[in-house]
């Protein structure tokens, strides 16, 4: 394990955006990446002190690696997006990766691969070219950015204020003084400017992204698992078959 250069991490993020056909000005589409990279992902409400985890099971012979991700929906929607991007680094780019369970977004250089994942996530969510397109030239000078612009950018890229400020500090557009000023009263400022609050609050949703349900059905249709086992697999995804199909009595 070692710290990777920011240039290398930015190149990885840029390449993934291009692969997904996402312009520098648009928010990255997390679900699209998860589906196209075959990452079986479960969005689920968990403890507040846990943001997510990832597991990569190495394939052998003709089989490819298997990817699994778990995202905590008890955290804000913006934090969920950052966490998913963080875990994508582990799954797709970290050498010899097996498992990670952590709190994304700490930017702690003592944990080298976690730091790499945080930096990659920031680049994936907030490409420099997109920031230069959205932030007025005069506000790209040190500590000149306004609250109105910060809100516009974080709403556009669907990112947290913390991720945005960290990215701007990395670009040397702001100092610690401005960082500390604007990381306060985030929700209140969004309300004051009339923005939707979805970005800043937990979703508490349960959602499975991937083909787990299709694979379970295929096994059942081929007679390789019983109906009881098939229903059990669906219940693992918190799908109550009797209620979903027949409705509650």
What do you see in this structure?
With 249 residues, the chain is of the alpha+beta class. It has helices at residues 6-19, 30-36, 77-92, 112-125, 128-134, 147-157, 161-170, 176-182, 186-192, 212-221, 227-236, 241-246; strands spanning 39-44, 52-57, 66-72, 99-102, 207-209. A 5-stranded mixed sheet has the order 4-2-3-1-5, with helices on one face. β2 and β3 (66-72) form a beta hairpin. α1 (6-19) crosses α4 (112-125) and α10 runs antiparallel to α11 (227-236).
- The N- to C-terminal Cα distance equals 56 Å
Could you say which overall geometry the principal axes of the C-alpha atoms support? globular
- Overall pLDDT metric: 90
Beta strand %: 5-15%
Give me the secondary-structure category: alpha+beta
Please mark out the parts with pLDDT under 50 across 5 or more consecutive residues, or reply none: 243-249
Reported for the largest beta sheet, the result is: 5 strands, mixed
